[in-house]
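User: I'm designing a mutation panel for DUF1858 domain-containing protein and want to avoid disrupting the core. Could you give me a predicted structure to guide residue selection? Please restate the sequence first so the numbering is unambiguous.

Assistant: Good idea. Sequence first, for numbering, then the predicted structure tokens:
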Amino acid sequence: MTKKPDITKEMTTGEVTEKYPATKEVFSKHFGKSCFDCPAFGTEDINLACMMHNTNVEMFVNELIEAAFKGVESAS
């Protein structure tokens, strides 16, 4: 059984997408596809990104974890 990924709101957007590429869908869903072109993407933490986009951080992190988990499971 695969363990759920440990993603926190303190992690940077770059850390999460690099380690768990499947999470890119969640970023696009909530922040738009252009979020990857933003100069801050990759360096800002999840909490700040959610504040900037008026998105509930707990819900967002849970969606990231689910997407990452599915991505890891399908790669196994």
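For picking mutation sites, this is relevant: The longest helix spans residues 57-75. The chain has one domain: 13-75.
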